[in-house]
Design brief:
23% strand, alpha/beta, 9-stranded mixed β-sheet
Length: 263
């Protein structure tokens, strides 16, 4: 399979990918994301799709809980790292790995999965975000949840203004797309756009939330100093968890999460 620029980038960094997200900033992101995943993840043994699942962290978590998982990604490098971890943990029989593009998952049956998830914003990186959401909806069973995260339009706008990157700011306003710092195109969502796409593909919107609603607006050097203090970290994490569903600020978060139920 020919790899997109996004896939090439992720293959290039695949050996270091997990380490790149091991800091206080991403710990808060994970805390909010996990609180929502735990709310919607089936309690009984289920068949789960982890689409664009990269190095397999969520797939492994699900397999340890007894679920059967199909892990897909377009990046061969990310899947190689996933294979190593899955083999080391002895979970090969629980997790099936497929090199699949999220916008075209023809090897997967329609109405097949009990829970469909796409974390880490692959829907923003795939170049055809509507096709991706259509596919995620297609493979979900009626009555099952579809859970995705994506990059935020207004969160990105704030960053571009801070960086005085007016060229990409203009692109963002025109198309909701930018050439990001990793040299591939990303699509940044507004809340209403995500909701409308879910409803268009027969997914009843159950919940929308923001990830990193506050700390995405703090300069990196200052934020690192703030979060290095354990008391500060605990307070800020609790605030992010408490207000992640606040309608007035969801759209300004760094990332957006949405959960829909297939009709």
């Amino acid at each position: 399979m020919k790899e997109s620029k996004s896939a090439q980038y992720h293959s290039k960094i695949s050996k270091d990918y997990d380490v790149m997200f091991q800091d206080k900033y991403w710990d808060i992101h994970t805390a909010v994301e996990s609180s929502k995943l735990n709310k919607y993840l089936p309690k009984q043994k289920s068949l789960i799709l982890d689409a664009g699942g990269g190095t397999g962290n969520f797939s492994i978590e699900c397999a340890k809980k007894g679920h059967e998982v199909v892990l897909t990604d377009i990046s061969s490098g990310m899947l190689e790292e996933a294979k190593k971890k899955i083999k080391k943990l002895g979970l090969e029989e629980k997790i099936t790995i497929l090199n699949q593009d999220i916008i075209n998952m023809n090897d997967l049956k329609s109405n097949h999965f009990d829970f469909v998830v796409s974390l880490g914003d692959p829907v923003s990186y795939c170049q055809k975000e509507e096709d991706a959401i259509k596919e995620l909806a297609r493979v979900a069973k009626s009555g099952s949840f579809v859970f995705i995260t994506g990059d935020s339009f207004f969160g990105r706008m704030f960053k571009l203004i801070t960086d005085m990157n007016y060229k990409e700011l203009e692109n963002l306003e025109k198309s909701s797309k930018i050439q990001n710092q990793f040299d591939f195109i990303e699509h940044d969502f507004k809340v209403e756009e995500l909701k409308n796409l879910f409803e268009k593909y027969n997914l009843q919107v159950i919940e929308v939330f923001g990830l990193l609603s506050f700390i995405n607006k703090i300069v990196k050097e200052k934020l690192e100093k703030i979060l290095s203090n354990e008391k500060n970290f605990k307070i800020i994490k609790e605030l992010e968890l408490k207000f992640c569903n606040e309608p007035s600020i969801i759209g300004t978060a760094g990332h957006l999460g949405i959960i829909g139920k297939k009709k």
